[in-house]
Design goal:
The structure is a homodimer of 265-residue chains. The first copy, chain A, is an alpha/beta fold and 265 residues long. The first copy, chain A, contains 11 helices and 10 strands. The first copy, chain A, is 43% helix and 17% strand. In chain A, helix 4 (97-106) packs across helix 10 (207-214).
Chain lengths: 265, 265
């Protein structure tokens, strides 16, 4: 059995392209249709109902474009909208929270920290998923709202980034966490600063674990690698995103398109 | 002549309520209908076409609720969408850029700095409006993207705020600016830190100048002050905004409503 249709991936912005990059290394014969909801980002500061509404509109768009698989490459949308997406989707759905929880448990450490957006942390999704897998672990979760704008400003290793990281992360030292889940696709950009602030703590990037969750559910394509296509759609003006999107993706984009998502209700 | 209908005011978030507060002091007999587009904020990082589209949807909403006057209490929307709004509006429209330019020129200083969001600064609106009024002035404008998330995090006077202000504002010292326009409704929250970074520089809050622009165009209401109403609508979940909105407004809100703006196209 094979299926030539693309894998659909969405994020509130273009950070989720790092997930596509990881998927591409693992599944080089697949084509990808990525949707970045750049006109309505960020999701991480918004309410559960708004995040769910936007996520369902994104899913409708991807399904109308006939994707064979859905990857929710946004921690906030995964934390708040996955059940609603699974209810409407006729194709398999994978988010980033459960793979991240798998990866956290797989470290073998007993004291786990989680960082994410306000909405992700308020949802308790990581804490719940880790507890389901390993009820004995200690899990402490904290929101780091300024990490996203810092990453977008490119201030990832300067004094402001270090002082911000110190304020947000110092409590994890008191908690003696051994591993820290980077629960937002922007945070890996701050990895160096986070590692300096919490020396000796294992950093867990949930995108690493997504491929393992996708593989058993995927009906693969059978084309040659060079025939696979990378199509990126954004809801805000497209051109300013090409350079940053190609940097995140690690290869040229075959098609960059500005789309309007009208399913706001 | 009198007109009992409310004055309609919108902003991307609730920061624009500081403008309502100023208007309220000046026009205590007026009722206000404020719309904060909190589900789609921020506008300042988005493209001109998206900001215009969202602004027109907000205007349609306010006009359907029968406002007698429109105040665009968002610098980004004023910079990018005012001509489009004026084309569709049957009622008078006032933005914050032109009053801010008036106020900057009124300082009498020769070297003016302007700070704002990326979208506001990229539009060149303040520079253009100041030059129209006083072609001889030197105007330097710079975007300060992290000031909005810092204000929202409440980090307005800590080390991170000071170091961020130093990075963004130090170039204005080299330019020897004498007055600085705070071209975003969030920035007055950082006034203390900005003043410490640029000692001796006059800070210009464009909201101060809005009342003067509204007065000659307004058909006033004739009710008693205690009969005026403050109705606030937000597009993201309402409850979490009540406390912060009442703080910005400086009085209780008579009615807080969660609305969905469907005019996304």
């Amino acid at each position: 059995m094979s299926d030539p249709r693309p894998i659909g991936v969405f994020d509130s912005g273009v950070g989720g392209l790092t997930v596509v990059r990881r998927l591409r290394e693992e599944f080089p014969r697949e084509s990808f249709l990525f949707l970045g909801d750049t006109a309505r980002l960020p999701y991480g500061t918004k309410s559960p109902e708004t995040v769910e509404r936007y996520s369902l509109a994104n899913v409708r768009f991807l399904l109308e474009r006939d994707v064979k698989f859905l990857v929710v490459a946004c921690n906030t949308a995964s934390a708040l909208a996955l059940p609603a997406i699974e209810r409407v989707s006729p194709v398999p759905v994978v988010g980033v929270i459960e793979p991240g929880a798998d990866a956290a448990v797989a470290t073998g450490f007993q004291r786990i920290g989680v960082i994410g957006t306000e909405a992700t942390i308020a949802s308790g999704a990581y804490t719940r998923e880790i507890a389901r897998r390993a009820p004995g672990l200690s899990v402490v979760a904290r929101a780091c709202p300024l990490f996203v704008p810092l990453a977008e400003e490119g201030w990832v290793e300067n004094g402001v980034a270090r002082e911000t990281a110190e304020i947000y992360l110092a409590p994890f030292r008191d908690d003696r966490v051994e591993a820290l889940v980077l629960g937002c696709t922007h945070y890996p950009l701050l990895k160096t600063t986070i590692a300096m602030t919490l020396p000796g703590v294992r950093l867990v990037d949930s995108a690493d674990a997504v491929c393992a969750a996708v593989r058993p559910l995927l009906t693969p394509a059978r084309r040659n690698e060079e025939e696979s296509e990378y199509h990126v759609c954004v809801t805000d003006a497209a051109d300013r995103f090409r350079a940053v999107a190609e940097r995140f993706l690690g290869r040229p984009i075959d098609r960059l398109e500005h789309v309007e998502i009208t399913g706001d209700l």
